[in-house]
Amino acid sequence: MRTALIAATAVLVLSTPLYSQEQKGMLKGTAPDNFEQRRTGILNSIDQRINSLQEERTCIQAAKSNEDIRSCAEKRRAAAEKAREQRRSQGRPAGSPAPVLPPAR
User: What's the CA gap between 84 and 52, in Å, rounded?
Assistant: First the structure.
């Protein structure tokens, strides 16, 4: 009886992730072909990060004092907060860079 209970619990626990992935359409053969959408989202995210880093680099290079460097850091923080607010307004989690879907298995 105890073995049957353990086996039933194990089946339930192990099948739950599979069921949730199936519901999300992420199992092999169930997800639509979204390669172009994924690639575009990833490239846009990379471009945004590159632009942000270039702006920060330019600001630091132009700095003449510690106050200027602090000002660059404040600009960076303000830009990061603005990007975070935009993601929140689009319904994405705060840490997610772009709506990138995981690959279909």
Answer: 13
